[in-house]
């Protein structure tokens, strides 16, 4: 092969390798995932009883369409939730998020899935959903939602001011994971926690 041909081939290979490196996906959760809006009215956060009811865990139910109701609510402070989706095959009708595979905490541009866990804490006069750091330098504990009164059974958790649901997205495509989301860290101790600028919000995908 002539020298000029070998040189051109080497440059071509070099350019191809550089393109691979430049197009490689980012490795951090902050850069990898985006947020997308969703219809808050289609969701309900629930403190679902475990065992004898002395403990509870977070469930999130989603109404995907109007073919059949997925849940019903009654009363206030606290609001009782009837998880109707447990009584029929809800495939294609309802969504259900039961653990960290389905939901996580996010503040602004920071995905906190690996550094925060969500815990339902039952108190004498209330049931509270807490975002609890799993690492000493992750940030403060945060109250995310509460039932606003004592009760038993399936109870609706109502967001504290500043919190809402967002959907996790990747390259403009909505994923089957939701964020309990706050745009900025709360005032006080939370203000010292790391808080990158929020990423652009994507519009809801059709049919989400």
Average pLDDT works out at: 82
Helix proportion: 10-25%
Please trace the helix and strand order, writing H or E for each element: HHEEEEEEEEEEEEEEEE
**Distinct helical segment count:** 2
Number of strands: 16
Low-pLDDT residue intervals, each spanning 5 or more residues: 1-28, 188-208
Which structural category fits the helices and strands?
mainly beta
Biggest sheet, spatial arrangement of strands = 8-7-15-14-1-16
Distance between the termini: 57 Å
The rough form would be described as: globular
Number of domain units:
1
Q: Note the main sheet.
A: 6 strands, mixed
Report strand %: 35-45%
Rg from Cα = 22 Å
Descriptive key words:
208 residues, mainly beta, 6-stranded mixed sheet, 4-stranded antiparallel sheet, 2 helices, disordered N terminus, disordered C terminus
């Amino acid at each position: 092969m002539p020298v000029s041909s070998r040189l051109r081939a080497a440059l071509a290979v070099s350019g191809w390798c550089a393109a691979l490196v430049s197009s490689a996906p980012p490795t951090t959760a902050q850069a990898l995932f985006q947020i997308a809006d969703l219809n808050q009215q289609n969701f309900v956060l629930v403190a679902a009883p475990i065992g004898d009811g002395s403990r509870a865990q977070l469930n999130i139910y989603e109404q995907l369409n109007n073919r059949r109701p997925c849940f019903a609510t009654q009363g206030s402070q606290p609001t009782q939730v009837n998880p109707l989706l447990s009584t029929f095959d809800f495939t294609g009708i309802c969504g259900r998020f039961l653990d960290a595979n389905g939901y996580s905490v996010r503040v602004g541009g920071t995905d906190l899935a690996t550094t925060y866990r969500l815990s339902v804490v039952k108190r004498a006069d209330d049931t509270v959903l807490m975002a609890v750091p799993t690492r000493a330098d992750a940030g403060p504990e945060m109250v995310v939602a509460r039932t606003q009164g004592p009760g038993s059974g399936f109870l609706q958790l109502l967001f504290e001011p500043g919190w809402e649901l967002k959907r996790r997205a990747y390259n403009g495509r909505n994923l089957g994971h939701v964020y309990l989301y706050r745009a900025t860290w709360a005032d006080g101790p939370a203000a010292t926690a790391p808080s990158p600028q929020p990423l652009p919000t994507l519009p809801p995908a059709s049919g989400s």
